[in-house]
Design a protein that fits this description.
Order of helices and strands: HH
Strand content: under 5%
Helix content: over 70%
Shape: flat
Largest sheet: none
Number of helices: 2
Radius of gyration: 25 Å
Structural class: mainly alpha
Oligomer: single chain
Length: 73
């Protein structure tokens, strides 16, 4: 019986800890998104990352197509 109670107490502590982390993260994200300068920098970083991703994807396509034989019609 004590192991069941101990497990319930442990689960409750883990739930409280998880909720505390979520509260901190929610607060931090809310404050960050309220900062217009931060949001503009974030948008720029995301745009740059997506652009880089397209470059890498195009490069990967080139490498793959170089190794795949083409059908001659």
């Amino acid at each position: 019986m004590t192991s069941i109670v101990g497990a319930m107490v442990q689960a409750s502590r883990e739930e409280e800890l998880t909720q505390s982390f979520l509260d901190v993260v929610t607060s931090a994200v809310t404050k960050a998104l309220a900062d217009e300068k931060f949001v503009m920098e974030l948008r720029g970083a995301i745009t740059s990352t997506l652009r880089d991703g397209e470059i890498y994807k195009a490069g990967a396509r080139g490498v793959v197509s170089a190794f795949l034989p083409r059908k001659l019609e």
